[in-house]
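In the design runs reported in the main text, the only information available to the sequence generator was the tokenized backbone. The following block is the verbatim input for one such run; it is reproduced so that readers can re-run the procedure and compare outputs position by position.
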């Protein structure tokens, strides 16, 4: 269903001023960071000098994206209880990272997950695979952020959607090309704290109207929602158990394959700080998802019943992605609307910057420096290529945002998680834990996982029907992870069992890798600034 057009009531000057203030602050941070970004280590990983608590807040800022704030609130607003499916799925991936990935990743890698996957395998083909799969994940993730940003700018400024996308892409290119990881980290920290403060205040104001009683809020939401008690039951989003399990698999294991999240563990000085980062991130993210649930039900009660926000056909103006933004005005007036809108936009800018930086690292560090240059390129040329790649990714992000304007942002991120769970997560996990993994197995499993996930995603109802306009989907489920991820693991095993005698050297190198992954001996340390 096409969303109702966004109603224009003139520019929201409160939001514009707050937005301008945030942009000015982040540009000052970018200028400060640019003077401290002198090497590839500075650009990709802030020289490894970020503290564990700081990095945890930045990771939370990276994860609390447009999909989390706008998308999950929109899903709760439309479907009630089922919106928790995304919240829980996003959250439960963090224990996997904390206990299985974070410390070993920090000890083995340098800038990207390709460094880890190719540690003891044939570098050129494995890096190509990891870089391509990471870029596909980043592309899907970028779509969600750009769509949310475009709709917000439309709402605040009254600009056409295309112009809004250009503004976001331009700012993102500026942040990354000048400030690198250091600027991106501090932008993420600031926006995470602002978003948590704003969402907490919104949830407080919603609960205040119901005597801080969640049962009273739920009872009122049931009374006013067209589905009534249906919003407290599962299966509104996941039409059958297979759909629910497949989505859960994607969200749970996809976190361990997101390149922009895994890249953040290289910004701390050692494995202990990496674990501390996960603890901070998990606590903040879990708290935030509780807030989005309250905000979603608050929007059902206070937004869906107000003719200022819905059309006579009971469609939310601008689409359900704007539920949280309209709720801010309903409970706090124009000032809170302006603050939440500006913070939501800041959220998107920060996440897009992190995604773009990860994508640029794949192009410049993995493909250019290690595959094409075979380690002989200079740092200066590598940094120059990374900045060119940033500009190119910015243009791609703008085009994707325009093409997928009508999609729910949480759904698009779910697709990114499905690809990450199918292509990146098996390679990261097996390369660190299974001695028997060979280059042949990694390539077979990785490529089949990637191709299968992307193909099934294109053939799913979300793309084949809603975007491409076909009458019926060839693949009946929105998320392919339940099928593509086990297939990737199986192919990794099968490929590794073939020709094992010839690949004995890779198995022998596992011992050296294991020692480094446990002790950190030989790992890159922090740089002085």
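Verbatim output:
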């Amino acid at each position: 269903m096409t969303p109702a057009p966004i109603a224009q009531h003139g520019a929201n000057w409160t939001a514009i001023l707050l937005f301008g203030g945030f942009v000015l602050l982040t540009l000052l941070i970018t200028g400060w960071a640019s003077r401290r970004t002198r090497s590839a280590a500075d650009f990709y990983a802030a020289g490894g000098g970020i503290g564990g608590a700081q990095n945890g807040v930045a990771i939370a800022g990276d994860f609390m994206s447009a999909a989390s704030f706008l998308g999950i609130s929109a899903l709760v607003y439309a479907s009630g209880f089922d919106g928790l499916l995304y919240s829980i799925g996003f959250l439960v991936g963090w224990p996997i990272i904390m206990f299985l990935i974070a410390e070993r990743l920090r000890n083995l890698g340098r800038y990207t997950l390709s460094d880890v996957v190719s540690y003891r395998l044939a570098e050129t083909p494995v890096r190509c695979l990891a870089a391509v799969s990471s870029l596909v994940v980043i592309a899907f993730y970028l779509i969600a952020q750009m769509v949310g940003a475009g709709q917000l700018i439309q709402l605040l400024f009254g600009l056409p959607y295309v112009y809004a996308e250009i503004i976001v892409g331009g700012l993102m290119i500026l942040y990354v090309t000048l400030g690198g990881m250091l600027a991106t980290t501090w932008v993420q920290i600031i926006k995470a704290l602002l978003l948590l403060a704003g969402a907490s205040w919104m949830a407080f104001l919603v609960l205040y109207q119901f005597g801080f009683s969640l049962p009273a809020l739920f009872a009122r939401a049931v009374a006013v929602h067209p589905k009534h008690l249906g919003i407290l039951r599962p299966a509104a989003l996941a039409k059958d158990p297979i759909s629910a399990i497949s989505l859960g698999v994607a969200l749970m294991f996809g976190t361990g394959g997101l390149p922009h999240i895994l890249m953040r563990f290289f910004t701390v000085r050692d494995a202990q700080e990496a674990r501390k980062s996960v603890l901070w991130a998990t606590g903040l993210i879990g708290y935030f998802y509780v807030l989005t649930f309250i905000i979603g039900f608050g929007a059902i009660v206070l937004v869906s019943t107000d003719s200022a926000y819905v059309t006579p056909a009971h469609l939310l103006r601008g689409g359900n992605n704007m539920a949280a933004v309209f709720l801010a005005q309903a409970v706090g007036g124009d000032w809170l609307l302006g603050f939440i809108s500006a913070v939501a936009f800041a959220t998107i800018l920060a996440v897009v910057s992190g995604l773009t930086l990860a994508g640029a690292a794949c192009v410049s560090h993995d493909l250019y420096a290690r595959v094409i240059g075979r380690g002989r390129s200079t740092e200066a040329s590598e940094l120059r290529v990374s900045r060119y790649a940033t500009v190119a990714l910015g243009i791609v992000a703008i085009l994707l945002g325009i093409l997928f304007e009508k999609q729910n942002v949480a759904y698009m991120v779910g697709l990114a998680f499905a690809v990450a769970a199918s292509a990146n997560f098996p390679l990261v996990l097996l390369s660190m834990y299974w001695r028997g993994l060979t280059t042949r197995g990694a390539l077979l499993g990785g490529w089949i996982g990637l191709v299968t996930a992307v193909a099934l995603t294109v053939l799913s109802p979300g793309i084949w029907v809603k975007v491409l306009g076909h009458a019926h989907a060839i693949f009946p489920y929105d998320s392919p992870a339940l099928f593509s991820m086990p297939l990737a693991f199986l192919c990794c095993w099968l490929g590794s069992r073939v020709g094992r005698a010839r690949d004995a050297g890779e198995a022998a190198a596992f011992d050296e890798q294991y020692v480094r992954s446990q002790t950190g001996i030989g790992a890159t340390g922090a740089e002085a600034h």
